[in-house]
Give the backbone structure.
Amino acid sequence: MPSQVAAQIAGAWAPIGFILMGLASLTIALCFAEVGSRFDRTGGPYLYTRAAFGRFAAFEVGWMQWFTRASSQASVMAGIAVALGYYWPAVTSGLPRTLVLVTITSALAWVNVRGIRQSAWLVNALTIGKLVPLALFIIAGLAFIEPSRLTSLPPITMNQASTAALLLIFVYGGFDVVPVPAGEALDPRRHIPFALVTTILSVMAIMTLAQIVAQGVLPDLAKHSTPIADAAAVFLGSAGALLVGVGSVLSMTGNNAGQVLSGSRMLYALAEHGELPAFFGRVHPRFRTPANAVVFTSIVALLLGISGSFAAIAVVSALARLVTYTGACAATLRLRSPQFAATVKPATFIAPFGPVVPIIAIGVSLAVVAGATRQQLLGGAAALAVGAVLFAIQSGRKRM
């Protein structure tokens, strides 16, 4: 990401861009924090949209969120094989690649079936494993930066700015899954707002500093496909590059663990409310986890990863974010109305400045689609249409 951003907005614009899009994402996270503080069941944005706008809008939100979790998990799994292939080329294709994907998927599915606590421990451990190399990279690299590469403000076009903004909004994407497993948390109405805000601020600090170091160390950052590892090799040597490489594998594995956890819980929430077959809502008799949803989500992601078709499916992500973000932000405004006082719990956290933050957040959400390609829009529309068909079929079954 640092090199892709630098290719669009050079000089000081790149770290400024990380900060500005972090603040823009924070407005959306504040909406999620407020509306999330009203609910203590599994479902996240699906629950918020259902309470505010009804079943169909909520189903589309839940469906699109699960859809992107599965394709994202497949994409990241493929990335793990590529990262490992730098040291072990055989795993980038054929049977060895398939075995790597099957092993990773099976292990993460097993942990998620065992329990939410085990899943959380695994995600925490992998998060520490990726943050330690990043922290070392940032702390050690600050002494090697060339300030002149970070102080200029070269002219940029509107197209460059919008392309960079679309890249950067995806850097902060994923916080919308934080409240999804709320039904398995101890005190979600109090903890979710803190977790959401802390997530955005932490990512903003880490990514901005990583951009500063990579850009300040490498004179031609935009030409590097692995900018963090390449910059680490400059001031930490080959051992530093290896450490960053290990950190990237741990990072992607941790991302996958989170995708399985959140994606399966979204399927469970839809089934719990009768919007999908009861099969997906069944809970393991011993571990008390949505085992069927975990296994199904893992199988779909594995098949996408092995086939490579996740790349085509991933085009829905831009519109999926619009649907999820806008649904939650609009629900934040609507659920403040006194008419919902009897059906929705009072918020334990309120976004500041009245309606200003939700309105800005909706604008940011719409901007995500403004920068999307025609292919992304068509792919997203097709996914929404498939969701509408599934909703109609399940609704018809419920009436029979």
Summary: The radius of gyration is 21 Å. The chain has one domain: 2-399. Residues 38 and 296 are 29 Å apart (CA to CA). The longest helix spans residues 227-272.
